[in-house]
Amino acid sequence: MRVIISCLVAALFVVSCGGGTGGDGGPTASPPASAGCSGGCSAATPTALTVAEVNRIVSQAVQEAQARGALGTMAVVDRSGNVLAVFQMTGAGTTLTISGGRGVVGGLDGQVLTPAAIGGNNPVAAAAISKALTGAYLSSEGNAFSTRTASQIVQDNFNPGEIGSPGGPLFGVQFSSLSCSDVVLGTSVGPRPSPLGLSADPGGVPLYKNGIPVGGFGVIADGLYSLDLNVNDVDSDLDELIAVAAATGFAAPVNRRGDRITVDGRTLRYLDSESIISNPAAAPALPAGGALIAVPGYKPIAAVTAGVAFSTAASGFRLDTTTPEFAGLGAYVLDTGAGVNRFPPTAGAGGLTAAEVTRILAEGIRVANRARAQIRQPLGSPAQVTISVVDTNAAILGIIRTPDAPVFGTDVAVQKARSALLFSKTTAALSLNSVAPSVVLGYTINVPFYVTAMQTLIPGALTNGIAYANRSIGNLARPFLPDGINGNPNGPLSKTFGNWSPFTDGLQLDLVLQKVVTNLVTGPGTPCSPLPEVTNGIQIFPGSVPIFRGAVLVGAIGISGDGIDQDDMVAFLGLANAGTALGTGIANAPALQRADQIAVPGGLLRFVNCPVAPFLDTSATNVCNGI
To answer: Which SS3 state, helix, strand or coil, does residue 7 take?
Structure first.
């Protein structure tokens, strides 16, 4: 009955519950060509990695590393982020060098981490877990993204090195799903936190079975945690080739990989080379030449464990079956593991009622279900998103998601909502100025500096109650202002370009760096930021708006999923539709109170950017105009 219901729900989204070809039909040098899964397979057929399969994945990786004369540390996770195995080859290095490749020193960039520096823990194992989680969290039945894909979409230009192009569409996503987040800090179920956030270092890939994403693999064999500055060449990357071997038999379907998906007319990267030199079919059933290791806070025992099937309560994600407002919408919730919704719709500080929160969430998912996804195959699929609402104290009042929304959006949706809330408050400057300067890893953190820079550029900023959406915040958090005009001065929330990299980007990292480093020593623990408004850190790419009642700020909504313009629309239009339906006064900020009234170099700030013709069921255009 559960399968039947799941397929019926999936049918509402024009998705397939069919199996498809590929994933676990035995080792093969070529990934499956097609999957047939478009968002409903995981719910209809719960699927997970077995202990034998995890051993096989690790063994294939070890064999490729040995064939190349390399020694590495590797990790396997399931789709919810549970660490299933960490394997260290005998003699593998335990020193990790973080480098953005431009000679920048500061924040995390330029750091050389040793076990002695992080309380005896293994920074290389932490990086391998982060890479595995990135492959799992960025991928879904409709898209497969690797850490090389992540590298392409978080840099100062998109594409990297393409002078005059704006920053990557997921600029800043690397500082999400952190080990200090209150959202991904599941104690017994997913989603799980990442030691170093999301990784842009090639060598992390998603894992699939029969077109269903079941986890991720990551490896560090070169001792370097970095990114790819040039997408116009073809690298032969050691870590990536080991990952290709590991994923043999579990590779992403070809027609779902990043290189089959375009953003702004540019094709994404997935893998630069798949020229492995070992024969995965010859790998032993159990990996040899090293040992399984424990990683405090992430993998408590040195053993292999089986994965947990996604879309089940035990995974931390399951279908909502009790909220009448969500009936028929395919709404999924975060579960405690015992059948209890972690974030049910709730009334909050500022005056939002439980009924209003419920309706905002429902209208958001209705917009998503009609919207054409940006980064998903097949073309014409509906957007898959996570939706969150917070109150004026930044407490989470509700989270729902569509069946196949990428897991990384769980934390990001809340980061976005909290960011819009903080920057829209009249007390934002006071809060930010309360953060005392500190020194971490020899790097000086001075959060009030960013307040001064903001107020120098925009008199009255952070005190005058102007409503900021995440797109507005992102405009100010780029190393060039306007974004993409290389050579211009930086935005006030960013470092100057000479001191900027994805490993030290400005206010975003400075708010969380102390806790990220502390957690490398102690293991996961909240909060990320000293500011209660952004306890899991801020996010600086689009997809949120503040919620108003008249001219009064009462909360915020954040979205993360299948395209940043779609995220903007789900937040902005979903909130507007909820306000119209309820008639209680909740709405988007008054037009003259929005950040797009503020002039900065290059023009006005942006508030939201809705797609021109966004829907699958109508040819309506410019659907956000006049709101």
So the answer is: helix
